[in-house]
Write a structure and sequence with these properties.
about 25% strand; 8-stranded mixed β-sheet; alpha+beta; binds aspartic acid; about 300 residues
Length: about 300
């Protein structure tokens, strides 16, 4: 049942990427490390909401923590492109006025989600790319770092592994790790944010679904806030985040059913991944078609859950 927002309730859900992890392929220590990291991001977001902050502030706070954490494929710990660089994409959207901001291909911005928010709030545009986006970042005083900040040995190893296999266009091992957050605040407004390094070995300026408003990220107070992770090409083609919101708004579908239906469409196109959502009524949920999804959620009723594998 969907509760009304007039109770002043808030809720937050986050993800750290869909992937092939199972209890057999990921050891308990690594799963516990990821859970700890997810918990820290969840707490950063819930602190904002518990103090009466907005859903937008909460999703940016949670995603910034995940961007700074090397366990995830966003900000520090982002995957490498084919040419050995880290190129970052992020988007943010709020559901009251459907304002949105996004950036792609940035290489010096410590927290791309903050830059996406600056695009939304300080520019007349929605989507900025590459060098221009970072010129804007410098003008806005958004923190810039040396590109070395993003690089980790594990991601470098994954690139070498991919190149050695000569298997295809990009990482077939489903090592995703994109991060995202969705929230509803006490006023009943929703917001979504997503941030990623994209796919290991990406080239030719490839951009996935994460920073595309309507594909990997969408928020609409008439429906839900949605953040996605998975095989970006199919998520773009299915317009996943907007499609889920459209089914809720126009079809009257429950959020979980709409999410599962759209993920099934992605599956029919050959894609896999995961979705998190939050509704203005205070509901949060997850769905994923990969073996695992790094995920967590909390709400004003005292719920606090963290999961990694399918059965968690
Ligand atoms: N969806 C992201 C992309 O295609 C990857 C991910 O979710 O990890 O860039």
């Amino acid at each position: 049942m969907i509760e009304t927002s007039e109770t002043g309730r808030w809720a937050l859900a986050i993800h750290g990427g869909a992937g092939s992890m199972t209890p057999e392929t990921m050891d308990a220590a690594s799963a516990a490390e990821h859970e700890l990291a997810l918990g820290a991001a969840l707490d950063a977001g819930t602190r904002v909401l518990a103090a009466g902050g907005t859903a937008l502030e909460a999703v940016c706070a949670a995603v910034s923590v995940l961007e700074d954490d090397p366990h995830f494929n966003a900000g520090r710990g982002a995957v490498f492109t084919y040419h050995g660089t880290n190129e970052l994409d992020a988007a943010v959207m709020e559901g009251a006025g459907r304002m949105a901001g996004a950036v792609c291909g940035v290489t010096h911005t410590r927290n791309p989600v903050r830059l996406a928010r600056a695009v939304m709030e300080q520019s007349p545009h929605v989507f900025l790319s590459g060098a221009g986006a970072e010129e804007f970042a410098r003008e806005q005083g958004v923190e810039q770092v040396d590109p070395d900040w993003f690089a980790t040995e594990e991601r470098w190893r994954q690139l070498q592994e991919l190149k050695a296999k000569k298997l295809g266009w990009f990482d077939a091992g489903l090592k995703y790790g994109t991060v995202g957050a969705v929230a509803v605040d006490a006023a009943g407004h929703v917001a979504a944010a997503t941030s990623t390094g994209g796919l290991t070995g990406k080239r030719w300026g490839r951009i996935g679904d994460s920073p595309l408003i309507g594909a990997g990220t969408y928020a609409d107070d008439r429906a839900a806030a949605v953040s996605c992770t998975g095989s970006g090409e199919q998520f773009i083609r299915a317009g996943v985040a907007h499609e889920i919101c459209a089914r809720i708004r126009m079809g009257g579908e429950p959020a979980q059913a709409a999410t599962e239906a759209v993920l099934a469409e992605v599956g029919a196109m050959g894609g896999v991944g995961g979705v998190i959502y939050a509704t203005p009524g205070g509901e949060t949920g997850f769905a994923f078609t990969t073996p695992g999804l790094f995920r967590a959620r909390a709400d004003s009723g005292g719920r606090r859950e963290i999961g990694v594998f399918g059965g968690d």
